[in-house]
Amino acid sequence: MIIKLGSLALRAFPKVINLAWKTRVLYQWRKAEVISLLKKGKPANNLDGYRPISLTSVCCKVAEKMVECRLWEFLESIGAISDCQAGF
Asked: What is the arithmetic mean of pLDDT over 43-61?
């Protein structure tokens, strides 16, 4: 969705994120709609056959990724991330 906005809108997107951050709109973006999906091969009449899926805002996901990238760059620049740092 965001990729199809075009270059002008993409350049404006960080401004939208910053404005949302200042006005606390980001809290509203964090709200999710939870739906149930039937697991493959499970009967539809058994509640154990379903798994929850959270549908969240695309804008929220992009904002989180922007913060993650900036934070990671900063932590690397001050040497706060060890070469032994790992995750899953």
From this structure: 90
